[in-house]
Structures are given as structure tokens and as C-alpha cells.
Write a structure and sequence with these properties.
The protein has about 180 residues and is an alpha/beta fold. Helices cover about 60% and strands about 10% of the residues. It has 10 helices and 5 strands, in the order βααβααβααβαβααα. It has helices at about 10-15, 20-25, 35-40, 45-55, 65-85, 85-100, 110-115, 125-135, 140-150, 160-170, and strands spanning about 5, 30-35, 60, 100-105, 120. Strands 3-2-1-4-5 form a 5-stranded parallel β-sheet. Helix 5 (about 65-85) crosses helix 6 and helix 9 packs antiparallel against helix 10 (about 160-170).
């Protein structure tokens, strides 16, 4: 079954930073995000790289019409008091929730709030698991890239990172 995913900017930024954006878009998933997330990519090179997948029809970008934008603003107002998440975060959260899509995020506030609302939420480590599982990266490549990511993004959950690195090191011979 095809997995449909919503991605927020920090997932894109991390993947671009370690050179895995192309590999990510090779996963057997249908990719969605919102125009607010695209606009949040301030670095022109990052934005061009992500938008290129939109032009290739690999990434679908949701644009909110007037009524949807009004609903989003109301949702943000309601959630802001509880979670302090941004309107951009709410755009992918609401879109994922309304469509029963998986949400990919590296933002712990968004992850916790969306999970409490019933959304299936995962982070960058899940992406690594899927890249290895789908044989788009070997365990050795995943280890190298995850070590690169730790340098780029030190806010990753260190216990979970260490578990993966140890698991991949123990099971590396399975790749041969």
C-alpha cells in the first residue's frame, strides 16, 4: 500500500543538508505539503530543490482557498493557545488530519500536538528506517548520513539515534 506523507520544512532542510533529498523522493510514497511550507523555505537553493519535485509532479502542494484558509486560521487560533505552533505547522497538521495522511516533522511541539489529535506522526529517523528498508541506503550509508545529520541538527533524540547506529553496526553484514 502506498504511504502518503506531509512534510514540513525541517525535514526538507535536513535532507538537503545531508544530500538525501533525491533519495527521499525515491521512496514509494505519495508526497504532499502545503504552499505555506514551501514559502517557509527562505533559502533560495533549498526552495528550488523542493519546488523541482513539484514541477515533476512528485510533490503535491496544497493551496488553501478562502474557506479553507478561514478554517485554518480558526484551527491555528484554537491550537495556538494549547501548543504554540505556527500557522505553517497548523497547515500541514490540519491537512494531514483532514486527509488521514501521515505527518513527517522534526518539530517536537508539532509532533506531540498532532499525535494527541490522532494524526500518525513520524520524524527524520523514521525516514532513515524507510530508506534502509526500501534498500535506497545501505546500513553503512545510513550510518554515515545519520552522523552527518547529527552535526547539522543536534536536536535529534540522541537515545534513538544511538539505538539505530548500534543496530545498523550489528546488522551491517546483512547488506552483503
Amino acid at each position: 500500500m502506498e504511504i502518503v506523507t506531509i512534510s514540513d520544512t525541517n525535514i526538507f532542510i535536513d535532507l538537503i543538508g545531508i544530500g538525501l533529498l533525491d533519495t527521499f523522493f525515491s521512496l514509494p510514497w505519495e508526497f504532499h505539503t502545503t504552499d505555506m511550507i514551501i514559502h517557509e523555505l527562505k533559502e533560495p537553493v533549498q526552495r528550488r530543490k523542493v519546488v523541482a519535485y513539484q514541477h515533476k509532479n512528485v510533490l503535491r502542494v496544497k493551496k488553501f482557498d478562502g474557506k479553507e484558509l478561514s478554517n485554518l486560521i480558526a484551527f491555528h487560533a484554537k491550537m495556538c493557545n494549547k501548543t504554540n505552533v505556527s500557522i505553517q505547522d497548523c497547515s500541514v497538521w490540519l491537512y494531514a488530519q483532514d486527509n488521514r495522511y501521515m505527518l513527517l516533522t522534526g518539530d517536537s511541539k508539532l509532533k506531540n500536538a498532532a499525535t494527541r489529535s490522532g494524526v500518525d506522526v513520524h520524524g527524520i529517523l523514521f525516514v532513515f528506517d524507510k530508506l534502509v528498508e526500501n534498500q535506497l541506503l545501505t546500513k553503512e550509508q545510513a550510518t554515515t548520513k545519520l552522523k552527518d545529520l547529527i552535526l547539522l541538527n543536534p536536536r535529534l533524540p540522541q537515545t534513538d539515534v544511538l539505538k539505530r547506529l548500534q543496530y545498523w553496526a550489528r546488522n551491517e553484514k546483512d547488506d552483503g
